[in-house]
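Priority: low. Protein: TMD11 protein. Input follows.
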Amino acid sequence: FHIGEREEKCIIEDLPSDTLVVGNYKVQRWDIHKHDFLESAPGLGMFVTVSSPSGEVLLSKLYGPQGTFSFTSYLSGEHIICFQSNSTRFAVIAGSKLRIHLDIRVGEHFLDESAIQAKDKVNEVHVRLEHLIEQIHHVTKEQDYEREREEKFRKTSEETNSNILWWAIAQTLILISVGVWQIKSLRDFFISKKLV
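Result:
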């Protein structure tokens, strides 16, 4: 994605609780003379801020033009990940565009292939098995979180439907009572005028 040099850009990630999130990014600055993004942006860094659904700041750190950040979600819900450059130029002259390449991995622990190749086949199978077990636990956590969200949504829908039902019943009773009152008033009017 692209942002201005002094601009803040936030991304929302919906995460289950106790989930490791690892993010890699790389910043490129627009070069006016070459009309292209430079491969690296020396001297430019990024403030990375991560907030939990309750508003608690989980991570707030300055990184270089490329880096890796990680955090663990303690609550389930929408986590906000914000990026802002540490440019010291004033907003008027900081019109340069930045391109940020971002890769966010949620809940996965990637295997170090060089370490696996150094061990024998039994250890390799054991490490891969542990990795698969971790992935199964992560998928189970994701399913539990989605189940919680579905249950909360269903409860809200049922409450809304019952409110609509009671509102319809109240409207019907009001209409019936107004109709009875109008009939009684009309009857009394006709009796007082001796038309009936």
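The helical segments are 113-118, 121-192. The radius of gyration is 31 Å.
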